[in-house]
């Protein structure tokens, strides 16, 4: 039984999937399984996943398009590891990610969920910035304004994921709904090291943002009695203001400017160091391929 399962849901990620898998293979901590669950990809994602010969890699492909939350719950059910590490199929792990998070769990068994800061990258693997916060809300009213947890960096015990499944009908805000449901009872920790390269710059983003924003408004309606009418109204208005900004910048082909503003700008030396770490994380070892 491996210590940790890396849960990787995949949908049409062929341009980036090989780098993602290599970043798992290159981890300093090696007692893992990689569970790749395809959600009915129509590109060569499954072929790329199956081209790796490492026996720790398991590929599940049933040809169905069921949606991300259902696949995340499937990963929780199939995982053999005591811990489950989330990541997305277009992101890249820093080579020490698993070791750092596992070590933290070993020293702090009272913690339920461990996440980390992230590096932001573009579609060409260029590093742009750092994002993260350790100021986590501990009430539902505070969480409505946002929970600064980067979902692909999350690690938790398998039993915890099984006890707290994702809502299978919430296709764009399943992580937000999960955090809202447990924010007052779960114990979180955010590691201030950036342990994941998160791909967003240069990719179509506004449509996904608007879908997530609509999911947030649905959650606001659900929790309106608990957070109060005034707080609900203010949060509703803020979602529409942000929607308008993203639509406006999208119309002028400048949505990347907004994405850049969400991250801390790196110095030249920091950017160079991060770029070197990314290159190291995805380096190829031909023995990994069939």
UniProtKB/TrEMBL annotation:
<dbReference type="GO" id="GO:0016758">
    <property type="term" value="F:hexosyltransferase activity"/>
</dbReference>
<keyword id="KW-0808">Transferase</keyword>
<protein>
    <submittedName>
        <fullName>Glycosyltransferase</fullName>
    </submittedName>
</protein>
<dbReference type="Pfam" id="PF00535">
    <property type="entry name" value="Glycos_transf_2"/>
</dbReference>
<feature type="domain" description="Glycosyltransferase 2-like">
    <location>
        <begin position="6"/>
        <end position="126"/>
    </location>
</feature>
<dbReference type="InterPro" id="IPR001173">
    <property type="entry name" value="Glyco_trans_2-like"/>
</dbReference>
<dbReference type="InterPro" id="IPR029044">
    <property type="entry name" value="Nucleotide-diphossugar_trans"/>
</dbReference>
